[in-house]
Amino acid sequence: MIIIEEINIADREGDELFTVVVEGDVIRKILPSGTSVEAPGARVIDGGGLYLAPGFVDLHVHFRDPGFICKEDIMSGSRAAAHGGYTTVCCMPNTSPAIDSPDIVRYIDERAASTGIVNVFAVGALTNGQNGAVLSDMEGMDMARTLCRELTGHGIAGVSEDGMSLMDEGLMREALHLAKRLGLVLMDHAEDKALMGGCVNEGPVSKALGVRGLPARAETNMVERDIRLASDIGARLHIQHVSAAGSVELIRAAKADGVPVTAETAPHYFALTEGILSTLPSEVRASAKMNPPLRTERDRLEVINGLADGTIDVIATDHAPHEVEMKSRPLEKAPFGIVGLETAFAVSYNELVLGGVLTLPQLMDKMSSAPARLIGLDRGMICEGAVADLAVIDIDTPYTIDSATFLSRGKITPFDGHEVCGRPLLTMRCGVITYDAVSGIV
């Protein structure tokens, strides 16, 4: 038994303190602070006025396993997730081989089970090898016996061609029909291949740096097409890593029309703009290179508006680790992607809650309960009888983000050196502590 005393509950309004009793894998009691609990042998944690959050749920991570474990593997990615307050993550399929078969889905499930740190759910590829030509065995993956199936009723958390778009409209239509029949959400990387090839947002910054740009219409073209297809078919469409103002406007209009579309963005899209690239020394400039790229201040503000008005449902990380050597290359030659699991809550809290955009309970919804609901997972809430997937967070004490302390193999982030509030101090999955800042347990 674990008893957490003198703790605020982050998904509730107000500043009332509570005593939370965790027994086995569930929250057994939530009592007024100061209530005596007779439990010989229980571990007692002094909350000291800190906040208890529902464990965060990330719909979008790259754990690079199988195929690229020099960048990250399921163990290191899980440790990073726990360090950031996460208890469930969904792995994108652009591995080698791609997550396109029941065998690869089971491999990921078995590797994750051996760590016992976070729930790791696979997201299946839309096409074999992500080749854009032949649909994958979605039904076989959906039927795989996995933890995801045990907790959500599906062997995978969804399907996606993340890392690229499925350009063949007819095949995309087939994929949406099949996903609808299976009851799976299609997670959509929206990028028009005809406009690919750049490395930063197309505009004055790309011109000043002398590099090819990625226009916002590469994203909005595909968002528009796929919303149209989802509307025709009635399939659930989830737009990933929204970065452009035009995408927010399209999603907002689609929701108003009753299209079953949801959306996510990542902290870098509402905290940074392309302008940071001009301030960084050339040797670390790729720390702000991701796909889609950082865009303009207008785009950033519209992403924030989308979060505020509910157009954007979820904050995900798009955690995409690479070796330091790879990200130290010139901007044009460095790979896309930054790490995010260990900075997401702090950046989100500072930009959105301290920035007056969301309340803390609303941020909990974006990072915990909304992503859980989207994949049919019974998590993301703090109430009696709920599974004890929890994080203790300090929202008051400033600290400096230091990538050297990351548990991910990836150390590259444009937030390195930023002073923030919002540090996860303890993470618990199913009542078992998976990260403890005091003892260093992972």
SSE arrangement:
Layout: E1 2-9, E2 18-23, E3 26-32, E4 43-46, E5 51-54, E6 56-61, H1 74-83, E7 86-91, H2 102-115, E8 119-122, E9 124-125, H3 138-143, H4 147-152, E10 159-160, H5 169-182, E11 186-188, E12 200-201, H6 204-209, E13 213-214, H7 217-233, E14 237-239, H8 245-256, E15 261-265, H9 267-271, H10 276-279, H11 297-309, E16 314-315, H12 324-327, H13 344-353, H14 360-374, E17 390-394, E18 399-400, E19 419-420, E20 423-429, E21 432-436
Parallel strand pairs: 1-4, 1-5, 6-7, 7-8, 9-10, 10-11, 11-14, 12-13, 14-15, 15-16
Antiparallel strand pairs: 1-2, 2-3, 5-17, 17-20, 18-19, 20-21
Give a verbal description of the structure.
With about 450 residues, the protein is of the alpha/beta class. The protein folds into two domains: about 100 residues, Urease, subunit C, domain 1; about 325 residues, Metal-dependent hydrolases (TIM Barrel, Alpha-Beta Barrel). Helix content is about 30%, strand content about 20%. The strands form five sheets. Strands 1, 2, 3, 4, 5, 17, 20 and 21 form an eight-stranded mixed sheet that branches. A six-stranded parallel sheet has the order 9-10-11-14-15-16. Helix 7 packs parallel to helix 8 and helix 8 packs parallel to helix 11. The longest helix is centred in the middle third of the chain and has 17 residues. The radius of gyration is 21 Å and the shape is globular. The two termini are about 20 Å apart.
